[in-house]
Amino acid sequence: MSVLVYTESEEGKFKKTSYEVVSYARGIADMMNTTVTALAINAENTSELGLYGADKVLHIKNDKLNSFTANAYASAITQAVSQEGAKVIVVSSSANAKYLAPILAIDLNAGYASNVVALPESQSPFTVKRTAFTNKAFNHTEITTEIKIVGLSKNSYGLKESQKEAAEESFNPQLDDSQFNVEVKSVDKAKDKVTIADAEVVVSGGRGLKGPENWGMIEEMADILGAATACSKPVSDMGWRPHGEHVGQTGKPVASNLYIAIGISGAIQHLAGINSSKVKVVINSDPEAPFFKAADYGIVGDAFDIVPRLNEKLKEFKANNS
Q1: Which CATH code fits 201-320?
Q2: Within 95-188, where are the H helices?
Q3: 111-154 pLDDT per residue, tens
């Protein structure tokens, strides 16, 4: 009876969240004195999963699964659960996983807890700690069903190396055409950019930058830090930046290790979407900006003066420490 973990990959490469959910599954397995089975789909190097605690990898190679299709993926995972006799399934809190997990819960008659931030506090009853009220509070949820699905919040558990040898086993679930009821015609991606979902650092700009022509210093900082660029909702609404960069409660959630907000006042909807970030740095000319109350570090001043100087210092530091 292993703990089954679904690992996400893109173009054959595992996402960082995959290593975190495997690390977390390893922690649960150790509590239950059992093993970890990871399910990988069209991945290139499954041995990497062993480094974080997987004992076995079920590897699906199927070109029809190159693009995420929730029903087909749910069917594949359900069949893996049946084969392994798994009673605990671990997934991430990515957009795809949050779409997938409720379907799995129905198929498996399982309880599902999302936004989990720690290992179970007890096994009987199976109790997990979760964020609530847009990360302003925690609750403790009991999952009473025989099969349990845990959705791990990004950056809540971290990566923990186990250095295990993961045995790979080919897995070929039975999938029919009815499960591919959504057809992906094309996927447009930003090239040579760090995505917000995978970024360790996010540099975000707001209306205080006064126009799209001033975004060069934001992109320069992001390039120096290897960060993703983001923006507030008004900025994307005005067409200064793509809607794909809008972060906040109504945009993309951010759970980066470092979030730098430049010229963003800090409306409650924005803060709700970035509260999971570990360290928040705010640069704003208004000392009364609400964002300062949520910030770990704040700089009061003109972004057009501070950011270029900060970029020069960052480049100097990087050159001296590379």
Answers
A1: 3.40.50.1220
A2: 95-108
A3: 999 999 999 999 999 999 999 887 778 999 999 999 999 999 99
